[in-house]
Amino acid sequence: EEKKAAAGILIEQVTKAYAVATEEKAKANEEEAKTTVLANDAAALQKEADGELSEAMPAMKAAAEAVDCLDKNSIGELKSFGSPPKECIPVCAACAFLLKNEKKAIDWKNA
């Protein structure tokens, strides 16, 4: 009789623990589904960013090569102008942005 009561209590405890475990497993499965969706979104975003980067790299390399041909004398000659030729302004602004990496105050005086 005592063993039956102990077994009944044990069965009740196991049943409760099983219910809790089942509930926790359901929550874990929901979280796993959410995480999978987020991981897939992140992978798609990474793929898109890599594609955009690979498209931009040739232009970046070409711009770097174009700037590499400038030497100190060329820059000194350019600085000697009171105001630059109209065609030079956007080029100098781009160079200033690349060298200083700031958008504000990109003009002839700050170049």
TrEMBL record:
Domain of life: Eukaryota
InterPro entries xref list: DHC, Dynein_HC_stalk
Every Dynein heavy chain coiled coil stalk domain range: 4-102
A biological-process GO annotation: cilium movement involved in cell motility
GO cellular component, one term: 9+2 motile cilium
MF terms (GO), sorted A to Z: dynein intermediate chain binding; dynein light intermediate chain binding; minus-end-directed microtubule motor activity
Identification of the protein by name: Dynein heavy chain coiled coil stalk domain-containing protein
